[in-house]
Amino acid sequence: MTQQETVHHPSRSARQNCWNVRDAYFACLDQSNVLDPLAPEAANVCQDLRNQYENGCMKSWVEYFNKRRVLEVEQKQLLERMRAQHKAVEERAAEQKAKAQGA
Amino acid sequence: MLRSLIRTHAFSRPAAAGCPLAPRAAALPTPVRAQLSFRQSARGYSTNKSDGARAQTASAAGALNWKTFAVFAATGSGLLYYFREEKKRVEAARAEEARLAKESMTYGKPKIGGPFSLIDHNGVRTTNDDFKGRYMLMYFGFTHCPDICPEELDKMAEVLDTVNADPEIGNVITPIFITCDPQRDTVAEVNEYVKDFHKDLIGLTGSMEEVGRVAKAYRVYFSKPPKVADGEDYLVDHSIFFYLMAPDGSFVDCYAKDHTAEHVSQSVKEHIQAYLAKGGQISKELPVRKSLQQTQ
Lengths: 103, 296
Hints:
The structure holds two protein chains of two kinds. Chain A is mostly helical. Helices cover 72% and strands 0% of the residues of chain A. In chain B, the strands form two sheets. Chain B has a seven-stranded mixed sheet with strand order 2-1-5-4-3-8-9. In chain B, strands 6-7 form a two-stranded antiparallel ribbon. The A-B interface holds A 5-12, 15, 18-19, 57-61, 64-65, 67-68, 70-71, 74-75, 77-78, 81-82, 85-86, 88-90, 93 and B 20-21, 23, 25-26, 28-29, 32-33, 35-36, 39, 72, 75-77, 79-80, 83, 143-144, 146-147, 150, 184-186, 188-189, 192-193, 196, 233-235.
């Protein structure tokens, strides 16, 4: 081995390229109303961008980004639901309080 | 301080997630999906609520609705209780933290850190003693990390440039990247990687045992997937804090992913200024490692 030992991890530009093709593919999925890249309905949409994404990113990264895309949306929805529920419960409590005071 | 640190660890590990989102977190979707499907049917139901005839169409999901409604009601009151208790707890913790702020500068610090012996990105044996006399900003990660590590290291570089540019402080921090993936992260990999982020950044690797020991000392969790075939690529799950260590090697503070570069820079500056105000001495020379001099 000389000074130029092979390096396997993606360089800064390779990383940036992977994020770009990922974002393009995910934006296309958004437009097609597909959340999960692994869902059957994802198979027929954005195929070119999907190929670019899968060729431009390491396999483990693709798996990770795909999972995270779904998880992020689900976590956000869960949080929104929790907030809505919290608000509803508070409103009901306030209503009951007002009723009790009125009576 | 220790408590708040543990809390940060316990709280942000599953939520904010380590460099790769823990694969175990993938277990979450099942109940969420059940609720999602409910939500869709509930939306159909509620918009048609006033229309008795059309409400029939939602009856297919009726049982699910009832069950889920019960769950929602229970969760709702549970949440209300939780939020109220949490609010009280946070307020109490804040008061406690303010009270302890001064004291924590001098005692009550968690025992994070300790001696280590690793190989730097030039292939030179390097120990914690090589960095004494300067602050250390340390980050644990791995070169194949998809996005969080590079983002955090960019943030660290920004913090360094900000602090270095302060005329009252100058260059007193040695930034250090320690890999938690020593199997793949050879000296050559680490060498190439650190160049991407900051000219002062020192990359450290070592044997699995050496890295395991330093990670333990810094309370860093990391885990390689158990089944990885030869040549197959993988991600390492790990905690993603970076640590500020004092010139004597003791722990000063740690920063999480949701802390902005501005916040971290400000906090680091304040720590260093407080140390200087107490008459502390910090070397402005980048570390010249004894071991490196010997090999030259």
